[in-house]
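[job 4471] stage=fold_predict status=RUNNING
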Amino acid sequence: MRILQVGDVAAKFDFLGVYFMHLNTDIKVEKVQWPMDEKRIIPGDIIIVEADIGKNEEAVDAFLDIKHRIPDTSIIFILPESTDGDLINRILKSGADECVMPQCGITHFKSIMEKHIKEIHNCVIVPSMADFGIIGNNDKIKFIINFISKVAPSDISVLIEGESGTGKELVAYGIHKASARAEEPFIPVNCGAIPKELLENEFFGHEKGAYTGAYGEKRGLFEVADKGTLFIDEIGEIDPSAQAKLLRALETGKFMRIGGDKEIKVNVRIVAATNKNVKEEMRAGRFRKDLFYRLSAIMIKLPLLKDRIDDVPMLCDYFLKHSRVLPEAACFKQINQHALDALCAYDWPGNVRELLNVIERAVVLSENRIVITPEDLPQYIQDRETSINNVCLAPISGSEENMSLDDYMGFMEKEFIRSVMIKCGNDRIRTAESLHISVANLYRKIKKHNIS
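[job 4471] inference complete, writing structure tokens
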């Protein structure tokens, strides 16, 4: 199918042609000038007529005639705000599909376009790439999505392990939304953000007068999450004394508010998460074994972003289209190949959360440009991609052709570290920062590779 943009369509609507062409390779966008050869128009075309042409009554009549002769076209007029009301009514009554003003919102205009594409071609516009909010085609992520579909229907407790920024809350929310509790509350709590002495109060609430300052009763999170899901993030931060009370609530579904003498019964599913190695915490005596066994009936470990780097382009595309903090026009931006190469060359110690922050920064710095380039990325990402290109794209010499894979990877690591050290003026601290490793780790690698 084709989208024909007739005349100088306003810049923000011009974004839409690129957007729809990007989503569906069957959509072609063509720009034509008025007067145009009407024989070019075929059934299924969507024609966007820009404002100045919309003021020309002769041109309007010509497009309305096209609509009558070829009903399976959609004609959308972008009319100036000063357009006479009688002309707008005549256009609509004569069969035009839409009349919009140039100052209308991008989201509104996008929804109009989607409606007409679906009506004419019966096709889905937005591809499904965000099952349960988890984005990616990497096998590790496909495993996570399959895992969610299996555990969600039950009420069994789930323990999610993963480093900061890997998407633990997204997985927990996915489990909730794929379960029979989907319409009930999903209550997240980060134990690391609450003082340990207040955790019991947060979980179970208190009665009026339970302690100085308790001027009224307070419902705890277990009550608030009744019939829904309670997501306990950073559960390894809970004090051992509070762990015992939490265990009893999990086992019996009953608890008492602080200062209360009546048991309250709730029906809550627990999904917990941690960025610590809970088994090590348990061996060190900082985490109760019985609580661990209660929570870990089902365990899942989330992958680091660097272990699924092939998902970076899809994640970038998703962030541009779905971010709640970016300007509306961000959904029409694109990232060029050089910038994508730089993003894929980076290790992402902050995982998906760091990538989101980098994309939001790039959108702001790219201002009114449609295309995001490497210059819009943080300098440390640009530097890393340049260093990798300098080392990894060098031709293999005869002395390296007979190396084993392990030997060659060691050679590449040595050359990469050496190139970064030169770039950093042999400053070990700066070199370690550029490589995103500790100074101690850098010294070990220097010794291992005998780098002078």
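[job 4471] summary: Residues 405-423 form the longest helix (19 residues).
[job 4471] exit 0
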